[in-house]
Amino acid sequence: MNVYKNLFLMLVVVFAGCKKGGESTEDPGGIVPPVVETDKKILIPVQLGTGNSKTVMSYTQGAAFSKIEYGDGTSIGFTYNNTGKPLGLEKFKNEELVSLTDYELDENGRVIIGRMAIRKGNKYVLNGHYELKYNELNQVATISFMDINEQLLGKVERRYDRTGNLIGERSTKVDLTYSYDLKNGLFKHVNYAWLLTIEENKNLFLSGINNVKEITDALNSGNTQNFSHVYNKDGYPETVNTVIGGTKTTVKVSYKEIGVN
What we know:
There is one protein chain. A 16-stranded antiparallel beta barrel has the order 3-4-5-6-7-8-9-10-11-12-13-14-15-16-17-18. It is mainly β. A hairpin with a 5-residue loop joins strand 11 and strand 12 (152-160). 8% of the residues lie in helices and 51% in strands.
């Protein structure tokens, strides 16, 4: 009994020694408060460059392209179904429709075929299509280009890194390798921007996760392209410097905020 009594008295003494006036005397240096990160902005680009070289982009409510306008008078318009899946892409010159692509979707809403047509006089004539095959991660693994007679014109095989960046494309004509930075890509938060890596020969559309830094072609060393970036405080590129064939260009980027994560 004395043992339990002595133990009780010891606990009382210890407890009393730890409090004074209702305040803890515990060393505050022993507890490190958790670091709470501030919310990161979700930005989408609305303009690249100025003058005749500028590109102006507008968007749907679902953060997908609705229109892209270039400074040379050309533009691209996009259509979607009521669930936001892409239905088609139209190309214009001075507001006149010159070509289009209609998309066929599978049961999962993925684009599997792009049927292309061009304007000839007052008619639009089919000039082939492409077929997309996906890997187990829902990334486009192969692109097969077909003519109007269903004859294979060429096939492109794609490969990706662990973060989902497209790092290689191979066909009979090119063997391309892409490298990237670790920052927020220009089009990171733009839905279906990857379709323009098929439709448009403008390599900044590769920057859908991180930003492309270099493009090399194992079949043609003269095709090397280099990109460097100056980033804003939110980790998105505010300036893109490009060197292609010895020619240097600099593009300023303007964004709008669509939320935080």
